[in-house]
Amino acid sequence: MNKLTSRIDKERLLLGIAAPLLAIVAALVITALVILATGKNPGPAFSDMLNYGFASDSQVYILNKATTYYLAGVSVAIGFRMNLFNIGVDGQYRLAAFFAAVLGGALTLPGWLSVLLILICAMATGAVWAAIAGVLKVTRGVSEVISTIMLNSIATAVIAYLLQPGKLAQLQQGGTVVATKPLPSASHFFNIDTGPSGELWGFIVIAALVGIAYWFVLGRTRFGYDLRTVGQSESAAAASGVSVKKMVATSMIISGAVAGLIGMPTLLNDSYQYSADFPTGIGFTGIAIALLGRNNPIGIALGALLWGFLERTTNHLEFQGYDKEILGVIQGVIVLCVVIAYEVVRRYGLKRQQQRVGAELAAQVAAAPMKKQEVA
Amino acid sequence: MRRVAKLSAACLTTAALALAATACGKTSSDDASSSSSSGGGKGGVKIGLAYDVGGRGDRSFNDSAARGADKAEKQFGGSIKELTAKTSDTEADREQRLQDLADAGYNPIVAVGYAYAPSVQKIAAKYPKTSFGIVDSVVDGKNIDSITFTEEQSSYLAGVAAALKTKKNHIGFIGGVDNPLIKKFQAGYAQGVHDTNPKVKVDVQYLSHGQDTSGFSSPDKGQQAAQGMLDNGADVIYTAAGSSGTGAIEAVNGVKGAWAIGVDSDQYNIPGMEKYKSSILTSAVKNVDVGVFDFIQSVKNGKPLSGNNVYSLAKGGVSLATSGGYLKDIQPKLDAAKQQIVDGKIKVKTTP
């Protein structure tokens, strides 16, 4: 019996590694074909991506980008674990970053205190915005997909209305950029200077803490257990005494609070203000990264790093004369490959297991009629 | 078993970090420096262009910059390298774009669009021997040429023309996005109209707001907005909205006696607009190409421009197009207004 379990384990491990490997190989092959179809040679493209992507300044860039993407991925993943599709992460983080920037520009407190207040403001704004969708869902049964998409547009409009000279923003020198009042240098988050490679954003520490909290709360607490149960089967959760409505609203609020942090690395480490060119669309990137990372805290980190790597290197590919649209193609292909590969491997593993258990049972039936079942 | 998976993931990450550590200390510019030294000796100019969202082919702002660079390439020889912004860009992406160009020895480097202002400031300081140009913004630096335009002046003239041509004393302005740059157009236009005939009513509509910049690239939105204004009785419509303007011109073309006023390029002469020529009264031209060409030429001649170079009406940086000859009857009045602006007798507002 001991032998048997160890064999199954080995196989599961193998299958676990097979899925991402399959996805990466498939993605590479398809990307190579696409590059070939545009009449270019994929070989130099890949080697350029590797060379350029592993230069030290690229590493800093990738880590900085991944900090933002990681938070986005975690925010979306919290919803996913609950079977909630929070498409509104995009609006939540932009609105949160905007109000946090307004608050930060107005504050004249000691640095650490105002950083803390800015973070709280951002998380609260994100949570409130997400809560609207959560409350609508539990009280009126409105699908969170519909309501969050609409809330994204509303967030855009609210920011557009308030980001005007004379309202909550001001016109900057040159007369072309409208931005919120810049944060005083005391409330900048710390940067790690890496010399010629640029500055590594200190916010990466917060992102890591969020990742640990995500792992702990979902995997090691009663709340996380309830959340995952509701995600897997609402009726089963309700039967075991979990208030589904409360869980839906709470997880939406937590997802929104984490979403509120997405804009913070950019705001506190880089731009120090919210202007019309604040990055948009990261909420949607977060969906791709959560899918890529299989909602796993380490998986999401790898996904975020991969995303940063791809953006950095394809920016440079454009420079080498390849089409810049190749980035979108590679990213789309990777997400599709990951989703498909995991499903294929899962089905294959299930089939193998059923066959083996069947064979095992048949053999045992032949030897002794009653034997305990070995289904994992 | 999940523990094993986690362990292997941890091992992978450590391996990746170790790999990363070995690469540390070597930046991408170190790799590129060898190629930059070999590239410079061929004569000609190596022009680096970093476009705003849309890039070459937008029939408007970016294209105008591209024309200037193309002209310089033809005249001086050399090569052009073009990179284009994405909507999801952060500061780091814009910096990377400029740095890649600088590393590869491109000189001059032109950043098209105000979004590049902070990155130009940073990268120009890092590469003091390279000349940088920035369109539509002012950045301080010894090796930076800030190329700006007085859009409000050409818009003022467009307003004068519109006020003289309207029969219903009712005209319209369509802006792409309600940002300060486009408001300059609106301010000048409205002032020009008001100074000419205070009875004329100006309808104003923006196609998108804030961070939603779709108003610069949605001909359908332009068409709907223009149709709405026409239905309300406006008969001259000025559209400052990038490629959305083509939709507005199309709508105007469907109404007899109505006029459209184009923007940035002389839209009467743009390929693809032939069908609507009979409706294009004029265009408020912004000669980004002149600014870009001047800058490249100055670098070629060894005396790179720097500081803020304002391309005004007086210098021919902005103008009112006369293609089609529809303005012939009112030309004297336009010339008079232009003269007053050039002489400084009329101060055109930059905010509505």
TrEMBL record, chain A:
The chain crosses the membrane at residues 12-38, 58-80, 92-109, 115-136, 145-163, 200-218, 248-268, 326-345. Keywords: Cell membrane, Membrane, Transmembrane, Transmembrane helix. It is a multi-pass membrane protein. InterPro entries: ABC_transp_permease (IPR001851). CDD domains: TM_PBP1_transp_TpRbsC_like. Signal peptide: none annotated. Pfam families: BPD_transp_2 (PF02653). It is found in: Cell membrane. This is ABC transporter permease. GO terms for cellular component: plasma membrane. Its main location: membrane. One of its GO terms (molecular function) is transmembrane transporter activity.
UniProtKB/TrEMBL annotation, chain B:
Residues 1-20 form the signal peptide. Keywords: Cell membrane, Lipoprotein, Membrane, Signal. The keyword Zinc does not apply. Gene3D superfamilies: 3.40.50.2300. It is found in: Cell membrane. SUPFAM superfamilies: Periplasmic binding protein-like I (SSF53822). Belongs to the BMP lipoprotein family. This is BMP family ABC transporter substrate-binding protein. It comes from Streptomyces misionensis.
